[in-house]
Amino acid sequence: MSIFKEFKEFAIKGNVMDLAVAVVIGAAFGKIISSLVSDIIMPVISLITGRMDFANLFVSLDGNVYETLQLAKDAGASTLNYGLFITSIVDFIFIAFAVFIVIRSINSTKPVPAAKAPDTKTCPFCQSSVSIQAVKCPFCTSDLK
Fold first, then answer.
1. What predicted TM-score, i.e. pTM, was given to this entire model?
2. So what's the pLDDT on residue 21?
3. How far is CA 59 from CA 65, 71, 80, 98, in A?
4. For the chain, which domains are there?
5. Packed helices 3-12 and 14-35: angle between N→C axes, nearest 10 degrees
6. Average pLDDT per consecutive 10 residues, the chain (145 residues; last block may be shorter)
């Protein structure tokens, strides 16, 4: 069997197609959540914290002071961008929470399997586990009701 034919069979299987669709939708969902965080949530947090711009929270490693991260990058300075890191953490938390809510709602729609009726009972005399249909205990030979 040629490698191309084998690959075609692999790629056409339902699981691979489902996975591909999930990756594309997941990427789009991630972009939506990232936009929610950077365009809506972080500006509100910035307003609450006194107009702090998280994108411009950084430490320049060359010892100079720059007003913005872009000016530091334009000057070729190495920077520790902890503001962008904080934004990424908030982004991750919101994505994780959104995925949790989706999975939780999917799991709540699945039917809960009915409890299986017991197929054994305990002998009141010897405490052995016997078939629910037994009329005599196979261990102590007592009559079961």
1. 0.58
2. 82
3. 8, 12, 5, 32
4. 3-112 (1.10.1200.120), 116-145 (no CATH)
5. 60
6. 82 74 87 88 86 86 93 95 91 86 85 85 94 92 88
